[in-house]
Amino acid sequence: MYNILVCDDDKEIVNAIEIYLTKEGYNILKANNGKEALEVLEKNTVHLIILDIMMPKMDGIEALSEIRKDKSLPVIILSAKSEDEDKIKGLNLGADDYVTKPFNPLELIARVNSCIRRYTKFRFSCRRKF
């Protein structure tokens, strides 16, 4: 079972994502800001992060920068910031995908499945080669 960390200060969004992803067989970990997300990452094995940008204490961009210092797991930004500049910034800082709010939950699930599939296939195929 894969662990997905959902980090958003909107608890309704987190709970909705949890419902959809749990039905897909994922285990959900939750955080309400970037600081909490980093704490969850230190204490748990996480296979993918869904990360909001605009949050209190530590925003998603700062959290993503910290995560990328030593982790290569997939990150999907889920944000109300929909300008091209925001998307480009997020992707250039290391996000694997960028989904804007409001979002279609089924599309988000498809993107999660895609990232997990790529991450696990690439990770295991690299182990065999080296």
Question: Explain this structure to me?
Answer:
- It is globular, with a radius of gyration of 14 Å.
- The protein has a single domain, classed as 3-Layer(aba) Sandwich (Rossmann fold), CATH 3.40.50.
- Helices cover about 50% and strands about 20% of the residues.
- The chain is built from five helices and five strands; from the N terminus they run βαβαβαβαβα.
- α2 runs parallel beside α3.
- The chain is of the alpha/beta class and about 130 residues long.
Summarize the structure.
Helices cover 50% and strands 18% of the residues. It is an alpha/beta fold.
**Looking at the structure, what is the overall shape?**
globular
The share of residues in helices is: 40-55%
Could you tell me the CATH topology label. Rossmann fold
Q: What share of the residues does DSSP label as strand, in percent? A: 15-25%
Order of helices and strands: EHEHEHEHEH
Could you outline the blueprint of secondary structure elements for this entry?
Layout: E1 3-7, H1 11-23, E2 27-31, H2 34-43, E3 48-51, H3 60-67, E4 75-79, H4 84-92, E5 97-100, H5 105-129
Parallel strand pairs: 1-2, 1-3, 3-4, 4-5
Helix pairs in contact: 2-3
